[in-house]
Design a protein that fits this description.
The structure is a single chain. This protein is mainly beta. The chain has one domain. 14% of the residues lie in helices and 39% in strands. It contains 1 helix and 5 strands, in the order ββββαβ.
């Protein structure tokens, strides 16, 4: 399991995103993604799934 770059909770699925607040790519969980995805200049860069 990997940790979310924002809330540090462990999960199997993370979304690679960036926005006006996060100008470098980060990996975030679904809960944090729902917040980041509404920010200005939001970009989605893929999904990381652990098996």
């Amino acid at each position: 399991m990997k940790k979310c770059d924002l809330c540090h909770e462990q999960d199997k699925i993370h979304y690679r995103v960036k926005s006006i607040l996060y100008t470098d790519w980060i990996f975030c969980c679904k809960e944090c993604w729902s917040v980041v995805s509404r920010q200005y200049n939001y970009s989605y860069g893929g999904t990381r799934k652990l098996k």
